[in-house]
Amino acid sequence: MSYDQLILTFGLLMGIAILLYVILDGYDLGVGMLMPAADAQEQEVMVASIGPFWDANETWLVLGIGILLVAFPKAHGIVLTALYLPVTAMLIGLMLRGVAFEFRIKAEGWHRELWNWLFWFGSLMASLAQGLMLGRYITSFEAGVIYWMFGLLVGVSLCGGYILLGATWLVMRTEGVLQRKAMIWARWGLLWVLIDIALVSIATPMLSHTVSLKWFSFPETLPLVIFPIAILYAGWHVLMGTGRLLGGERRTRSRGKARDWMPFASAAIIFLLAFCGLAYSVFPYIIIDQLTIWESAAHISALEIMLVGVVIVLPFLIAYTIFAYRVFRGKVSKGLYE
User: Fold this and answer.
1) Of 238, 234, 136, nearest in space to 184 by CA
2) Which residues are CB-contacts of 14 (< 8 A; sequence separation ≥ 6)?
3) Per-residue pLDDT, 124
4) Which residue, 24, 244, 248, 337, could crosslink 51 as a Cys pair with Cβ 3.0–4.6 Å?
5) For residue 336, which phi and psi values (nearest 5 degrees)?
6) Does residue 21 contact residue 57 with C-beta atoms inside 8 Å?
7) What distance in Å separates the CA atoms of residue 320 and residue 323, rounded to the nearest whole number?
8) How many other C-beta atoms can be found within 10 angstroms of the C-beta atom of residue 293?
């Protein structure tokens, strides 16, 4: 494999790892942020729905950052230096929700309620920090109030996206009253996401000349209209899957469980499309207008050694993920993770 092919391979692997993290850990962060909207019994079911998966989902984040560190060390130094505070906030949030998740199992009474609130706060903190990091990254870490405000807008947008993922996950994994509540949460989450996608899509070209040229150099970029159309189509399927259209909840109850997966799959497709749009906006830069993937790549010998490790480790990671989701598939009930 040539040097250029190695660089492209690791760029693709890093992108896939980050995308899988966002979708897989995104839904359990979303479930965490939805905890205050449920009663105590429903919270137990919500925790049971993510219990077997939430910590393993974070493995993909470790893989993505590991590839950035080893394969693109110059970019790693710039990114983590510029994002030191939001990265710290994200790690504190992830640690807080991890501790709260485990401690709430043994706690009783108001202690359990306290840990539930801390689990919510940790989920919100981590989600908002990740969105802020993304917003700062899109604007190449430019200084100024307007750029930080844009970062906060992206942070709020990502929170909405995670809530959409979490709600549709609960639609797929729960039944009864909680499932119907999750359908309502999913509809509100979808509205939140679509509004924020529109706002971010308007603001980003205004703040980045590179992104503006990528998307608005007509007529060459006219085929890119497929992205917003596809996102709206996926959003329509979220509404259809939650019983919003053509018969509402009676249709949902009568169809059985066979298509409860559709809202979550459609939400994941929205994230996939948004990620592909971001990748198109950034490539070939790893840091917009500063550093390309070729300029930031490690020496070929380092990439070759790392490729051997990836080839060994990645199949086990994929196999374990598939195995875990297969074993714990289906509907959940209270106390499953106690």
Assistant:
1) 238
2) 64, 67, 68, 71, 72
3) 94
4) 337
5) -60, -35
6) yes
7) 5
8) 21
| pLDDT over 60 at 244, yes or no | no
Place of tokens 């198109």: 280
Q: Residue 247 pLDDT > 50, yes or no? A: no
Q: Is the Cβ–Cβ distance between 71 and 303 less than 8 Å?
A: yes
Amino acid present at 192: W
Position 54: which residue type? W
Domains of the chain by range and CATH? 10-327 (1.20.1630)
Coil, helix or strand at residue 1: coil
288 vs 274: CA distance, rounded Å: 17
DSSP state of 299: P
Given a cut of 80, whether residue 165 has pLDDT beyond it is: yes
- Provide DSSP, 233-290: HHHHHHHHHTT-SSSHHHHHHHTTTTTTTHHHHHHHHHHHHHHHHHHHHHTTEEETTT
CA gap 305, 320 in Å, rounded: 24
Closest C-alpha among 192, 262, 266 to residue 34? 192
Which amino acid makes up residue 331?
K
Q: What is the pLDDT of residues 100-145, one digit of tens each?
A: 888 877 767 777 788 888 989 999 999 999 999 888 888 888 888 8
Helices (H), ranges, the chain: 3-34, 40-50, 54-57, 59-71, 73-82, 84-106, 110-138, 145-173, 176-207, 209-216, 226-241, 248-254, 262-282, 293-296, 300-327
Q: Which pLDDT band holds residue 170 (cuts at 50, 70, 90)?
A: very high
Query: What is the DSSP code (8-state) at residue 83?
Result: T
Q: Binning pLDDT at 50, 70 and 90, where does residue 57 land?
A: confident
